[in-house]
Amino acid sequence: MLELSEIMEPLTVAYKTMGNIQHNFSVYADSGSFQTSSCNTTLPSKPLSEMSSSPDLLFILSPFSQTKKESPCLEQTIRQLSGNNTVIVGVGKGIQWLYESKVIGPNHISSGLIDRSVNGNVSIRRGLLYSIRQNTVLCVGGSACLDMTLKLISVMHGKEISVKTAEKLSCPLIRSPKHHRYETQTLTTDWPQDLKDVSILMKNNIREPLKITEICTHLNISSYQLHLLFKNHIGIPPAQYYGDLRIMQVHTLLSETNLSIKEIAKETGHTNISALYKKFKQRFGEPPCLSKSSSAF
Q1: How far apart are CA 9 and CA 123, in angstroms?
Q2: Do residues 202 and 195 lie in contact, with contact meaning Cβ atoms separated by under 8 Å?
Q3: What is the DSSP string of the chain?
Q4: Distances (CA, A) of 237 to 69, 72, 113, 227
Q5: What domains are there in the chain, each with its CATH number?
Q6: What is the pLDDT of residues 47-71, one digit of tens each?
Q7: Which of 263, 267, 255, 258 is nearest to 297 (CA)?
Q8: Interatomic CA distance for residues 119 and 146, integer angstroms
Q9: CA-to-CA distance for 3 and 7, rounded, in angstroms?
Q10: Cα 48 to chain center, whole Å?
Q11: CB–CB of 99/82 below 8 Å?
Q12: How far, in whole angstroms, is CA 277 from its chain's centroid?
């Protein structure tokens, strides 16, 4: 239950930072038995049938396996909560349950926030860590829950509280929703070796970027094979992946060094400062000069 830890810890820190000790968390499960988080913290849970209050935030972390008799009542309760002021958050497999319960629907597919496979499974769109739309939030799960929760704190209580929370959690960078899922891990274990080799080659050539054709020649694969690898396993073109690695390195150097923007541009292979500013703002929502003074975002 990594998600539970990544959600509850930043919220607890944020409320303590605000001096608000009136917050209360409740964990619900099918059986109402004790639940254990990834950090081995054991928490009591309540039966789903007792979910009757109107919380500020409601996190659906996994599908419910309640009986058909209980299901309509629970679904109706959550749909009513989503129509009020409760923020409904679907995490990982919880997104599937929200879709089947019609809390989220076809409009989330048409707007490109979620994908539906041929077998009916629903998940957040490849390339997104999380999505915040009014009172409905979707998150891929895992470590992305920390980024999503910090962003929620920023939206609900202000950026200053979110930054202070991130600092107390020793979190130097809050990833935006546009960060791709491949950035949650160094090398995905189920990537084919060719894709791992491409990723390593790109990371080792940030300062003097290679052309895609040069990468293909170096690894003895065709351009078609390369694009197919990225399409099947990452969901974006190789040039975009390469560009993302370089712009992430810009952010890292801004946060961890005293280099000037001009020096950082040289270290990351950006010959056009104006283009660098544009790319950085598209990714992080602010120009590099502002990011340097607020490294938590």
Answers
A1: 25
A2: no
A3: -HHHHHHHHHHHHHHHHTT--------EESS---EE-TT--EE--EEGGG--S--SEEEE-S-----TTTHHHHHHHHHHHHHTTPEEEEETTHHHHHHHTTSS-HHHHHTTSEEE-TTS-EEEPTT-SEEEETTEEEE--TTHHHHHHHHHHHHHH-HHHHHHHHHHTT------TTS-GGGGSSS-TTS-HHHHHHHHHHHTTSSSPPPHHHHHHHHT--HHHHHHHHHHHTSS-HHHHHHHHHHHHHHHHHHH----HHHHHHHTT---HHHHHHHHHHHHSS-HHHHHH-TT-
A4: 47, 43, 19, 6
A5: 2-168 (3.40.50.880), 185-293 (1.10.10.60)
A6: 766 766 678 888 888 765 544 444 5
A7: 255
A8: 30
A9: 6
A10: 27
A11: no
A12: 23
Q: How far is CA 259 from CA 99, 171, 220, 265, in A?
A: 47, 21, 37, 10
CB 92 within 8 A of CB 99: no
Sole residue written with tokens 């020096």? 263
Q: pLDDT tens digits, residue range 159-206?
A: 888 888 888 887 655 666 655 444 434 444 467 888 889 988 998 999
Q: What angle do CA 181, 177, 91 make, to 5 degrees?
A: 70
Q: Which residue has the tokens 């500020």?
A: 56
